[in-house]
TrEMBL record:
Record protein name field: MoaD/ThiS family protein
Pfam families, sorted: ThiS (PF02597)
Source organism: Methanobrevibacter millerae
Length: 66
């Protein structure tokens, strides 16, 4: 199975197993759900969502200001 990852300057295809989640991906990249939002196929999603073959995952860093 493969999916497409978009994050900052990353735009690549990745191989995965059947039970690979958004949370697993973010852990590999050293990202936190407190500072990053995930979109799966253009829709906001939770980090427990399983990534399926052909999905497009877009990770967006949240910027805080004051």
């Amino acid at each position: 199975m493969s999916f497409r990852l978009k994050y900052k300057n990353i735009d690549e295809r990745r191989e995965t197993n059947e039970k690979y989640t958004i949370k697993d991906l973010m852990g590999e990249l050293g990202l936190s759900s407190q500072t990053t939002v995930a979109k799966k196929n253009g829709e906001l999603t939770i980090e427990d969502e399983i990534i399926e073959d052909g999905d497009e995952i877009n990770l967006i860093q949240i910027i805080y200001g004051g």
